[in-house]
Specification:
159 residues, alpha/beta, Alpha/beta knot, five-stranded parallel β-sheet, Alpha/beta_knot_MTases
Length: 159
C-alpha cells in the first residue's frame, strides 16, 4: 500500500519532526508512506471571507496537483466522520482488499480545505470536534496509521 500525506506548509518544530520520523520508520514495515508538503499561501491575520476563500483555493490547487486520478483521497476536516482506531484500521484493510493501493490523506492549512479538495475526497475524516494545529495533525495522523496497521496484523499496541 502506498500512502501519501499531502499537507500545507513546512514543518518547523523539531519535536514534531522527530515524532513523525519515528512513526514513518515504524510504518516502513507495513506500507510506503510519504509526506508531501505544498506551499502555504501567505496571508495576513485580518482577511475577509472572500480573501480566505482565495487562500484556500490557491492552496487547494497545489494539493490537487499532487494527487493522481487513481488515488483514494481521505480529507481531514472538523465536520468529517469520526472513527475509532479500529474503524480506521478496518477502512484501510477494506481499501487494500478492494484494490485501492494508493491512498492520500489531506491536511489543509490554517484556514482548512477548499471546496474543490473536499469534493475530490472520497471520504472526510475528523479526529475531533476540537481544532488542532495542522502541523500537530501530521504527528497524530501518522501515529493512527501506524496503530491501524498494528490492529490489522493483530499485533499488540498500547490502548
Amino acid at each position: 500500500m502506498n500512502i501519501s500525506i499531502v499537507t500545507v506548509g513546512k514543518l518547523k518544530e523539531k519535536y514534531l519532526k522527530q515524532g513523525i520520523q519515528e512513526y514513518l520508520k515504524r510504518l516502513s514495515a507495513y506500507a510506503k508512506v510519504e509526506i508531501i508538503e505544498v506551499a502555504d499561501e501567505k496571508a495576513s491575520e485580518m482577511l475577509s471571507a472572500a480573501e480566505m476563500e482565495l487562500v484556500k483555493q490557491k492552496e487547494g490547487e497545489r494539493i490537487l496537483a499532487k494527487i493522481s486520478p487513481d488515488t483514494y483521497v481521505i480529507t481531514l476536516a472538523i465536520d468529517g466522520k469520526m472513527k475509532s482506531s479500529e474503524e480506521l484500521a478496518d477502512s484501510l484493510d477494506r481499501l487494500a482488499t478492494y484494490g485501492k493501493s494508493k491512498i492520500a490523506f489531506v491536511i489543509g492549512g490554517s484556514l482548512g480545505l477548499s471546496q474543490a479538495v473536499l469534493q475530490r475526497g472520497n471520504e472526510s475524516l475528523s479526529f475531533s470536534k476540537m481544532t488542532f494545529p495542522h502541523q500537530l495533525m501530521r504527528l497524530i495522523l501518522v501515529e493512527q496509521i501506524y496503530r491501524a496497521f498494528r490492529i490489522i496484523r493483530g499485533e499488540p499496541y498500547h490502548k
